[in-house]
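Protocol step 4 of 5: obtain the predicted structure for the target chain.
Materials: sequence only (see below). No template structures provided, no constraints applied. The aim of this step is simply to have a reference model before the mutagenesis design in step 5. Sequence pasted as it appears in the construct record:
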Amino acid sequence: MHIQRTLTAKFLGAALVLTSALGWSQPYSPTQDGSAKQDLKAAGHDTKDAAKDTGHAVKKGTVKAAHATENGTKKVATTTEQDTKRAAHATAHGTKKVWNKTKSTTKGAVNGAKEGAEKPAN
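Step 4 output (structure tokens):
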């Protein structure tokens, strides 16, 4: 009897070990399908999140570029305004200087002509 119990216990123990090992090595097929579906859902969510992050980064870069362009345009406008005022002032000064020279030369020519008309040529 003792030998029979030992053999029966060994046989049942081996059967339990092999059965559980086979059960673990081959997953249940609905779990595989669920896992694949879950993986696809997770990948879809990850893609959505990545697209949102990209959109936010593009928006941030666009706003930054717009502000930089606005500031650059303001600087150029200010510089242009200042340079235009300087040029206008220089033009006015130059025109006044030329006017005075022309006026002086004209007076000299008129006076010279009067003197020449008063004194007959010999």
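Step 4 remarks: The helical segments are 2-25, 29-118. The mean pLDDT is 83.
Proceed to step 5.
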